[in-house]
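A quick aside before the break. I want you to see a complete sequence-to-structure record at least once, exactly as it would be stored in a machine-readable document. Don't worry about memorizing anything.
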Amino acid sequence: MLTNPMKVLKITRRSFCSILLIAMHSLSSAQETLPPLEGKAAPQTYDELWEGYDPRAEPLEVEVLKEWEQDGVVLKVLRYRIGIFKGEKSMMAAVYGYPKGAKNLPGLVQIHGGGQYADANAVLTNAKRGYATISVSWAGRINAPDYKVNPDVVQLFWDGKTEDANYKVITDWGALDGYHAPSRNPKNQFPSLPAPSDWTLDPVVSPRNNSWFLCTLGMRRALTFLEQQPEVDGEKLGVYGHSMGGKLTVLTAGSDSRVKAAAPSCGGISDRFNEDPLFNATLSDPVYLERITAPTMFLSPSNDFHGRINDLQLAVKEIKTDQWRVTCAPHHNHQDTAEYEVATQLWFDQILKGTFLTPSTPETKLELAQENGVPVFSVKPDASRKILAVEIYYTQQGQVDGEKDNSDNTKARYWHFVKPVKNGDAWTGELPLHSVEKPLWVYANVIYALDEPVSGAGYYYGDYTTDRFNVSSLMSMVSVAELAIAEVKPTVQESLLIESFGEDWEKGWFSYSPNDWPIMTHKVYDPVWKATLGATLSLEILAPQPNKMAIGIDGYFTEVELDGGDAWQKISLTPTDFENETGEKLESWEGIRELQLEDEKTLRDKNSDGKKTFGGKWKGASPQFRDLKWIVKGE
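That is the input. The structure line, written in tokens, reads:
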């Protein structure tokens, strides 16, 4: 009997397709970066989470999207393979650069924060200082010449609108979602372990579904990228990042021994209060801090909401190295100025290049029991470099009992400045307290001169140059019970005079643009200067030329007309003189936290296109201030 050849051919083709599909599925399973659970429980510990993972095992498949040279630096926008998850490839975009022709460079992984971008300026400025740097775009956004990827462009990529003139190739998490601000899936929340979905790796609640873990995979692959570059010394790798990038810095340094130096800023020390036990066991900061062996510089402003300074004291005890320093700018929240930001660059110079030596952490001593009831704080700094100033800061607004501090309090607490007196090799200052019913926190800053100015890119990539740097002490934290045992006495009375603008008055105020005159203070939040019911805020101003200026209280502003000339002008304000972006008036002084004196301030309504501008572009010399106070009727 003859067989129909076409029928045979059809059967053969059908069988071949089936075999091919089976083979492709097997290949896909074999290539999976992380083995499927296949009925097993999700990882329950750090060791289970990272067991068997080798960041060097897979090819990087580097794609160069743009390349150029600038100021003797080779720069590239590129992508590298993170891994294959659920059969789909994940690719990480980044900006990479190095000084042209250089060899044996230390390599840095720079990690942006939640709303930030991978940025070419961080790469460029580091290259000029002798580093190769990869600035990683885990959220998809990029800031590079002719390769700007803002959230709108990210959306074009997600939507696959390749014909749009603004379309650009970016980070592609494939079947997963490691993006943020926004995440591709609205239910993707970094602080929690998301419910299983089509965009999660595991079909059960698992730390492998959380973006902290996924992004850390991407950072570890960035280390692999660096060590494979011919111009990089793979034994000299560092990692640093700000905010969410600070936490990712800790997660990376705590999971990869290739990191030889780390510098987290405003993150990586306070994610220890998650309500989910599985998150705490696998992705909390302490789990990774206690595995860090690399020398670490912590950049922790005193009022930062994300990397809270009270948790810093725990973090330095948890890491497994005695090579650490801290730098804590007073009054700052999630931002810093050059003399504090430069700590990152100097730390890498020390650990990775051996061209700098950071002075040791200041020794301090707090003596509570004194005849006059006023505690004394002594600071003994490392005098190996020229000391420009020793400063003491203390507050009674915070937690000392191990509990999570209130976020609003953390951001607004006021740090009293003490100018200590030098006695031999130590500086000593008294800490007069307003109350013995509140705890006490105190630390010291030592400002040192640099041999020559250092330039870099700050937290938000702006250029800076500084001729000084700061090294902070750890904090002494004292409970109410300890104050009572030492018979400490309250010696500071409440005052209507908020600021005399006398000697060292700037130490109680702050600005993130110290070359400009606008300034802020949290003094009005401290009980010493709390507003009395019905009080009027009074300030005298001397402005050589006519101007308009803005005065603000917690997001509410008012505009002040200044006549100019050589006469002091008195300004008196009530709460209802201040309004927000929608025109809503400030009801009272109750609970106010921050006072701002500015040249110009624009408030924008997020729910509309409306905006309000107070003050204006300043003309002439900076204003002078005096006699900032509360005025109470009848006094």
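Two observations worth writing down. Residues 1-29 have pLDDT under 50 and may be disordered. The chain is about 20% helix and 30% strand. We'll return to this after the break.
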